[in-house]
Amino acid sequence: MEKRKIIIIFIVLILIVIVGLWGSGIIPKRIARISASNYLEKNFPKMQLEYVDIEWSSSFGGYSIKFKDANNKTYSFIMNNKYFPISLGQGLFAFEEEYRQKYEWQDTNIENNEESYFYGKVIESNAKYIIVEPNENEEERKSADKISVGLGENNDALYTIGTNVKITYDGTILESYPAQVKATKIEIKSAENFEILFKDRQPIDSYNKIYAILDKSETNKYNYTIYAYDGSVNIKIDDKEYSLKDALLESKITMEEIIQKANKDLDNNKITGDMYKDGGSMIYQYDTYTIIKCHTIEGNRDVYIGTKEMTLNDVK
Fold first, then answer.
1. I want to staple 57 with a disulfide (CB 3.0 to 4.6 A). Which of 47, 64, 111, 213 is the partner?
2. Which residues does residue 212 pair with via DSSP β-bridges, in sequence order?
3. C-alpha to C-alpha distance for 289 and 271, rounded to whole angstroms
């Protein structure tokens, strides 16, 4: 009889402890951690996540559980049900979308043998590789803020820090830090599409007929000055419009790319142009504006963007 009482008391004490642990949240937190870890491991096997912590969130009415990836990026989820939290809720949709873009999108490229490309800026450079920071609007930026690009053994190209590049690669991104890609082409290029927008000077405009858009003293990017003649100059880059000065200073485009495009347009007979006999200055005549790139014997390398009637005599 005495033994039976002891057993009953022992069972009651165990139940009290269990109820206490459950009510205090210790057991539910453990259930939540195990359930969440198993779910993430099963459904997102390529994402190696590490548990961080779990806390009750009264504002969401559930447990806020956090995990981090190999790059220490934190992911938070809400697990509803205070006493038996076994399923992930808020935060899961965004995580699934990121996972799909980061892994399944890449796998599709690999299976289809597709080449991919992204634009970015060189932030580290040596003879063997460059490290590129993808632009904010690039898909690759969602999975990596730094991507290492090998240059090959016989490379003799130089990519200075700050250079805008277009990286074409085989579609595979190696998940490391920095991430790595195998490039099939590296181009010094800021954007796929851009267009000069020239507005003729109006009688009410107060600026001078010839004025510096960007003086060489304002930047170390150019050893020449870029002028406007009898109007104002903007540029449209991938459907967004900027003043040419802002676009150049913010490295959204380079003057070299603008001149390269003009040379290409001239070669393809899209525009007219000619070379002056002063050492090699070039004139590029579009329908609504003209570009003159000076290259004189005296060493003048300035650029002028002006009206479609502008000639070198107008800006001497």
1. 64
2. 227
3. 11
Cα angle 284, 286, 292; round to 5: 30
CB 273 within 8 A of CB 285: yes
Greatest extent of the chain over all pairs of C-alpha atoms, in Å? 120
d(CA 80, CA 83): 9
Question: Quick check: pTM over 0.85?
Answer: no
What percentage of the chain has pLDDT greater than the value 90?
Answer: 37
Spatial CA neighbour of 131 closest among 145, 146, 144, 151? 146
pLDDT tens digit sequence for 252-295: 898 988 998 999 899 999 999 999 988 889 999 999 999 999 99
pLDDT tens, position by position, 185-207: 888 888 878 999 999 988 877 78
Domains of the chain with CATH codes: 16-91 (3.10.450), 116-188 (2.40.50.140), 194-315 (no CATH)
